[in-house]
Amino acid sequence: MPELPEVETVRRGLEPVMTGKLVLRAEVNRPDLRWPLPPDMGGRLTGARVLALRRRSKYILADLSTGETLLIHLGMSGRMLISGQMLGDFHHDHPAPQKHDHVVLHMEGGARVTFNDARRFGAMDLIATHAVDSHPLLARLGPEPLGNGFDESYLQAKLAGRNTPIKSALLDQNLVAGLGNIYVCETLFRARISPKRKAGRISASRVSTLVPIIRQVLSEAIEAGGSSLRDYRQADGELGYFQHAFQVYDREGEACLSPGCTGRIARIVQSGRSSFYCPLCQH
DNA sequence: ATGGGGGCCTGCCGGC
DNA sequence: TGCCGGCAGGCCCCCA
How many separate domains does chain A show? Predict the structure, then answer.
């Protein structure tokens, strides 16, 4: 699931129950997710206070009073469930444990934060806070698409000469960090660029439109996530998924939503991933 | 260096 | 109803 907007939504949802709070106890129900969990993760989390919750790309980073940072990645199917806390007008009791509840954090204040991940492509690690940026998973990440380091000249330079389709280029986390399959499809649709076009064969003027479009697509999705957070607070406390109106993603065979266009959305496979686009107005 | 493909896991959905 | 193939929004690793 989770691309940058969903991860940011999860981070914001966790903030009220985690930031400033002690971890009273950490249940670790299996020794590994995608990789082995760090040694004695439960012990190292217990008694730590969460000083801040940050996000880098699709990673959530919880800085702890122990000098360590808990790194969390949701993979494809990772979810966070908050229970035992006043959420809006509702009080949520702790639900029965579910299959794939791999890690449960019992927080000061009475909330439980449960990491559930069926496919186990997610990950957690615990590292020295001062060394977060050099963690192997983060060290080579490109700039944040909503940050200052991502601008026209940067993108221009990175795409120049590249022979790979623009679809693959934008999915490359070392080029720009946080886009996934859905938002790349949506971005290319708005920019009217075919996912098959070679990255190095996009005119300078179209590359320059790409930057604000990427920012806009992500910002709108974060906003939609924000409104879904209010719903979660009145619903079941599960963070991570929210309804968002996609214009091309998963709309194979349906009408193109571009004004005046009579095309139908096509689905092709590029490096093993589905790309959705309109063959009439994206070129 | 770059680009492409396989693999990791489980669950779900559609077709027969 | 049951089985089976295909598919899933991520990312690392290996190979040419």
Answer: 2
Angle, helices A4-18 vs A204-234, to 10°: value is 40
Is residue A58 part of the annotated active site? The answer reads: yes
A241 touches strand C (CB under 7 A): yes
Confidence label for A89 from pLDDT (cuts 50, 70 and 90): low
pLDDT tens digit string along A104-121? Answer: 999 999 999 999 999 999
Owning domain of residue A20: 4-134
Instruction: Say whether both A72 and A176 belong to one domain.
Output: no
The pLDDT assigned to A91 comes to 73
Instruction: Enter the tokens of residue A168.
Output: 């693959």
Is A269 part of a structural domain of the chain?
A: yes
Name the burial class of residue A99, with classes exposed (0-12), middle (13-18) and buried (19+) by CB atoms within 10 angstroms of its CB.
Answer: exposed
Instruction: Give CA–CA dist A281/A270, Å, rounded.
Output: 19
Residue A144 lies in a domain: no
> Which nucleotide is closest, CA of A172 to its C1'?
C11
Q: pLDDT per residue over A123-140, tens digit each?
A: 999 999 999 999 999 999
Q: Which residues of A45-80 are buried (b: 16+ CB within 10 A; e: fewer)?
A: bbebebeebebbbbbbbbbbebebbbbbbbbebbbb
User: What CATH number has the domain bearing residue A250?
Assistant: 1.10.8.50
Among the options A25, A206, A273, A279, which is catalytic?
A273
Global pTM reads 0.96
